[in-house]
Amino acid sequence: MKYMTSDEIREAYLKFFESKGHKRLPSASLIPDDPQLMFTVAGMVPFKPIFWGKVDPIYPRVTTCQKCVRTNDIENVGRTPRHHTFFEMLGNFSFGDYFKKEAIAWAWEFVTKVLEMPEEKLWVTIYEYDDESFEIWKSIGVPEYKIIRMGKEDNFWGPAGPTGPCGPCSEIHYDTGIEVPVKDGGIPNPGNTDGRFIEIWNLVFTEFYQDEEGKLHPLPRKNIDTGAGLERISAMMQGVLWNFDTDLFKPIIESIQNVLSVKYKEDAKKDVSIRVIADHVRAVTFMIADGVLPSNEGRGYVLRRVLRRALRHGVLLGAKEPFLYKIVDSVVKKMGHVYPEIVEKQSFVETIIKAEEQKFITNLSRGLELVQKIVSTNGKISAEDAFKLYDTYGFPIDILRDIAQENNYELDEAGFEKYLQQQRERSRKAQGEVEFAQKTGYETLDIETVFVGYDTMQSEGTVLKIKKDGEFVEEVESTDGAECELVLDITPFYAEKGGQVADRGTITSPNGRFEVEYVYNPVEGIIVHKGKLYGKIKVEEKVLSVVDEKRRWTMRNHTATHLLHAALRKVLGTHVRQAGSLVEPERLRFDFTHYQALTKEEIKQIEDIVNEIILQAIPVVTEVKSYDEAVKEGAMALFEEKYGDFVRVVKVADFSEELCGGTHVKNTGEIGLFKIISESAVSAGVRRIEAITGMNSLEYLRNRESILESLKERLEVPMSEISAKVEKIIEEKKALEKELASLKRKLINPETIASSSKSFEGINYVSYVFDSVEPEVLKDLTDDISERIKGIVLLISKLEGKIVFTVKVPKELTTTYNAGNIAKAVAKILGGGGGGNPTFAQAGGKLQEKIPEALELFEKIIRREVQ
Hints:
33 strands; alpha+beta; 867 residues; 25 helices; 9-stranded mixed β-sheet; 6-stranded antiparallel β-barrel
């Protein structure tokens, strides 16, 4: 069998299916257009709407190499030859065109003729009741004994989610020839051995749809969905058993060896860590490049989990500082020619990873030390300890699980989950339940709403569905504003999405008035109006929908976000991408990828650019075109948006062009004055700008003007001299405070305090409580009194609503007493925090009523009655 590189295999596959009439398409994003899935987990995911029969395909035959992420068996990564979090899936798809016969014949042709795999090395499996596939395999020359019938758990492909397309499948297996036990004592085959036969290609014959109850329904058209693992095929074609020994991983592992000064294949335990890092750095590079950023929920949490797992294995290899970001370059060099997005985003990816590493690596080291202490004391990791490590140090449970497995420690994971659930409940009660997160009941309806809101703010329509108290009803009548939901065939109301808030307004029937409070899309194609009904309304009734025009001027802020996005990229660089947004009538909020705070000059530049475009009153043009055409023209595809084959493009001359389904002004002049009111950090590598437009900007300026007028009158100076006058007042205040502190210091007699000191086993100590003594004075007094008594001092000062205190321990006593530790103990009583070194510490609190208790604790510490 000939040797082939991964690049050669990938290209040969795509070219082969192009020769069979397939359209080659680029890989879709790792962020799928599917609410059931967190990541693109298979090559078929981008085509699910076609498999469902909800969308007509542009091309009847397609071939792709799809980047995928799966983390369901992350604990096996690095320990087995073929488990990965990130992988590439080769696929060929038929949408109601060819079916089993062609799919099987072409798969066999590719592996035997193009890859030149020896036929004696190949076996196939089929679903046990799929006689049609059996006959096709036999007809192309596969011996009957090499066609193995398997059960549903092995050869029936379920949906990529709780519901969706599915069907029987047939797999091609490669015989590695390694010696393993044979379960039934017969000829070794894929059904009676483990580890010898490697599944390299799965042909799924998608002919059913599985509903929420698990029932199968025939699809309107039969489809073909195949998936061939590039990593597995590369291993077979390069004569290695482990995917990590292929050319896909070799340069990455070489980089790990150089960065961490380790050797691969010299220590089995270290090898696991090296493989984990090699796999995980590919995953985090591609996830960040596709717009996933570290967070504590959703995709961001998965990213953070994978990244931290790689860091933990780096620490096991001796890493004491950030290292993972240095390995990204090897991933880009190996895969950037296939996936140009990682080349474009390399600098940004490295910045995000490094920031996350810096934040976590110290906590990780401290956490590992704590784990060792816990285990050495208790011999296990209790639920309480696991949760403390998670809650205090951000120590993921899967890392604890790894440690427990590697060292045979007992880990109470079930108990940990209970603690975690209690925390979630507390959080949920504090934040309120999230509306519309549950199943809505609209998923199974065969209806559609036409949105006309781009062109008009009112329209006539017909009521298709009414929902009240969770049930669909034919009519509703109410005099006191009954809460219900309406679905119309035509609506001008914009449903909340893409960061833009929903419209409000009224829907009027012959006998009723429905006040629209919220509009949402429970499923694609259906727009639901949620609100209160006064009067009567029924299904099939004609209604008039009128949008609140004042609220619809949200579109000023929406168009402004597009201009802001373009201006940010001009001023800060093309690494800037939208990472989230909120568009309301009163303001806009725009999150974007950037690694440092904006300067005042940068903010000014951005405001100037946006306002210059506004003043030109440039027409805002919207067009519908194919996704490929729009992207080729330079339209920005935003991270949080999902796109179909045809998209709506919003363009402002040659300044801004984005794919967007929101509402916009007719020309930029309608936006009015654009003003940034705040810029802040959201998370590592993500910044947030809040801004206003239109009448809100005018109101903002009036408020500022009012403040200045008030200052002018109170300071009795012209407006031009306000700043100088305030500076003078601040300087005078500082001087007076300094003078007051000096006077207070003179009024305090340190000798009087020193004379009240006590002694324990030859150690002098004293504590004292003051009213309104500033921290600087307190520190000087502490040094003075400690010197006078040659002992330990605690001074507490009660200020307005808070407490500050200082602790001093002479150097010769630090073998027995530690000022920092004393301060922490006292601060805990006083409801505060702080610390210092063994000789001096300063801390604070807020519970003034606890001061007697704190003084008592100090005395017990000195007398060694408590630790």
